[in-house]
Write a structure and sequence with these properties.
This protein has 695 residues and is mainly alpha-helical. The protein has 31 helices and nine strands.
């Protein structure tokens, strides 16, 4: 019987279509180091939230619009869990919250979620997307960078310091404590791209078009682009002093075979990768520069594009040398370092920068409510004005008043009345800005989808979160071992990694041939299975258990039984999205549902596609939830009667009670077709739009 390879099994794994440090309750490694209340009293937070609500209501009145009414408790709980910790609430949490008569239960819930390890995990997903974090990029590991991001979130590192640390980081990229180098190493050997991405992400300014010519749709010139690029002038992407003990390596390599020699050199190059150079503040215009103000190849000095001027201390030059803004030739020798990266960080990530606070405030608003006051988020121009300008000013001030504490800023947003209001029933008039009568109705992100489905398997996802450095630790250990190794020990390490036995390359070749055979078989299996999977979906939606059983038997005949373990499953694969490889493999559900490939800033999407449907139809629900040892299955099996089972299905998946009609219809179906019908109910609910959307 055919079996799915890991790659195709993952494709079929189905989920769903479309201050002071306070004491903490547990020692979960991703729990924030302090509680939100220990930093700022709730009364102040509510006061700030009320001011934002008042500004929004006045703005809506001017537009002759009215805020929408508050949502019910079930909708609020689901929204709060998805927004703050990134997944739907577990059954026990839903029932406890709905039964709680306390008038302040919503306030207590959001603060508790902000203090949970799940907040660290979910916020990490956001920054992984913005910063294009990848576990592997060529020969560089991105795990130290991911570790830095997680740790910054967990420790409430203020946003301005977070950005500054990434802009000035130096040293080997694989060394413990150097994870902040990952942002600039993400554009290794491309400092101009690094500058353009930094301006886009942190200042909402798109200058990349000005790299080759004056910007066609904005006022930026090519000369201004190179003035900004000059802050990264002289940066080097290797740290030659990272491995100091490899004296005599050339001699040792002369006696090694070609494969061993190449592996040793690759390992040394990889471990030498890092950032060196504080910045020269000088960059040359390109050779094809075609404007009349300067000649091609002219050295350009660093200069900011707006806001305060940055004063850099250049070495003294001879009399008659052109002054700043005119370019001055220092010859072809490398310009001396003058800490221009530090100067850039001090200018860019500053409360005095006219763009820095307002851009991140607008991003956080969009993350919470589905759209920005200014949209798009990363293309601000001189005449840019948000849909509610006074509200944007207030958000900018709040960000500064909170000293760029993003968790406290988010806390204010989720304590607003706006966060409790119903979503508008439509997207509004095309071409018109979203006005925030309530939050925008939107589909779950890929990470929310994956993590939500894991709640059906595990009762407590926080218990499965890994230590912050779990994935980076092997990288640190290897680097540390190499810093202590001499040339002979390095070769011994390479030989040990390669292993004895078959000729070099034979094992790799065999694995590649086997992989090709698996992929060919999987492609054929997928082609045969897709029509049956579509029919299976239709049969389940129609409540036709006989047809479902018939199709299940046909799929089993193809080698795809609905009850088999997903990906020949290991529970190690069922980790929260933030703890998995970044990004997930292309065949993974996360990628099928729009997880960013991390090649560009903020590249995730929530568009509906056909592969999403095919990904969901078989796999996760059958293999992990309905047939596996899942939390939901355990709850269903211990339920006292059919009425309770129907309630459990709705409360666990949609986080609400079934309507009277829904309860009656499904109790009737169970009476006719048997208790197995409850599995079809779960399948239908998880395939519904109501499950997929944050409402």
């Amino acid at each position: 019987m055919n079996r799915l390879s890991r790659s195709t099994a993952l494709l079929f794994v189905g989920i769903c279509s479309a201050g002071a440090i306070a004491q903490t309750v547990t020692t979960n490694p991703q729990r924030p180091v302090r509680t939100v209340e220990s930093v700022r009293p709730l009364a102040q937070v509510k006061n700030d939230a009320a001011k934002l609500d008042a500004l929004l209501e006045r703005a809506l009145q001017r537009r002759q619009e009215a805020p929408l009414p508050p949502v019910d408790d079930a909708t609020f709980a689901r929204r709060a869990w998805l927004q703050i910790v990134g997944h739907i609430p577990p059954l026990a949490e839903v029932e406890t919250f709905l039964a709680d008569p306390s008038p302040d239960k919503r306030t207590r819930l959001v603060d508790r979620l902000l203090d949970s390890p799940g907040h660290t995990s979910h916020f990490a997903n956001f920054w992984f997307d913005q910063l294009r974090v990848k576990s592997r990029q060529q020969n560089l590991s991105g795990e130290p960078f991911a570790h830095f991001v997680r740790q910054a979130i967990q420790q409430d590192l203020p946003y301005d310091q977070f950005v500054q640390q990434m802009l000035v980081a130096e040293g080997p990229g694989h060394k413990a404590g150097n994870g902040a180098t990952g942002m600039l190493l993400r554009d290794m050997n491309m400092p101009h791209d690094a500058m353009a991405n930094s301006l886009r992400l942190f200042l909402g300014t798109r200058m990349e078009c000005a790299q080759c010519h004056n910007h066609p749709f904005d006022h930026w010139t090519q000369k201004q682009f190179y003035e900004m690029a000059a802050f990264f002038g002289g940066i080097r992407y290797r740290d030659e002093n990272a491995l100091p003990n490899l004296v005599g390596l050339r001699t040792e390599l002369a006696n090694a075979d070609e494969r061993q020699r190449q592996q040793a050199l690759n390992l040394v190059r990889r471990m030498n990768q890092g950032l060196d150079g504080s910045g020269s503040g000088v960059e040359r215009l390109p050779g094809d520069y075609k404007y009349d103000d300067l000649k091609p190849g002219t050295p350009i000095l660093a200069n900011t594009i707006f806001g305060a001027d940055v004063k850099l201390k250049y070495p003294e030059v001879k009399k008659g040398t052109p002054q700043r803004g005119q370019g001055r030739d220092r010859g072809r020798a490398a310009a001396p370092e003058i800490d221009s990266r530090q100067a850039l960080a001090g200018w860019l990530a500053s409360a005095k920068n006219p763009q820095f606070a307002r851009v991140i405030a607008n991003r956080m608003w969009a993350r919470t409510f589905g759209a920005g006051i200014v949209d798009p988020l990363d293309d601000w121009k001189k005449d840019t004005e948000g849909v509610h300008p006074e509200l944007l000013v207030a958000l900018e001030k709040l960000m500064k008043d909170l000293d760029f504490d993003l968790r406290q800023f988010e806390r204010v947003l989720v304590h607003t009345q706006l966060f409790q209001r119903a979503c508008p029933p439509d997207d509004g008039t095309p071409g018109e800005p979203f006005t925030f009568r309530g939050p925008l109705l939107r589909r779950m992100s890929a990470e929310q989808m994956w993590d939500s489905l894991l709640t059906l398997v595990f009762a407590d996802l926080d218990d499965r979160l890994r230590p912050l450095d779990e994935r980076a630790k092997p990288v640190y250990e290897q680097f540390e071992a190499l810093t202590k190794a001499d040339a002979k020990e390095l070769l011994a390490m390479v030989e040990q990694r390669r292993g004895p036995g078959a000729p070099a390359g034979a094992a790799d070749q065999k694995r590649q041939e086997e992989l090709r055979r698996q992929l060919a078989a999987d492609a054929e299996l997928q082609k045969k299975a897709q029509p049956l999977l579509r029919e299976l979906a239709a049969a389940r939606r129609a409540g036709d258990p006989k047809k479902v059983q018939e199709l299940a038997q046909q799929l089993e005949g193809l080698g795809l039984p609905l009850g088999q373990r997903a990906a020949r499953g290991r529970e190690g694969d069922l980790m929260r999205a933030s703890d998995l490889t970044q990004p997930a493999p292309t065949s993974h559900l996360l990628r099928q549902f729009g997880q960013s490939d991390r090649e560009t800033v903020d590249a995730s999407n929530t568009a509906a596609t056909v592969p999403q449907v095919l990904t969901l139809l078989n796999g996760f629900l059958d293999q992990r939830v309905l047939e596996g040892q899942s939390a939901l299955r355990a709850d269903l099996e211990t339920a006292g009667d059919g009425v309770r089972r129907v309630r459990i299905a709705f409360l666990t998946t949609l986080n609400r009670e079934p309507t009277d009609k829904e309860a009656a219809d499904w109790r009737k179906a169970i009476a006719i077709h048997g208790e197995a019908t409850i599995k079809d109910l779960v399948w239908v609910l998880c395939n519904s739009n109501e499950f997929r959307f944050v409402r």
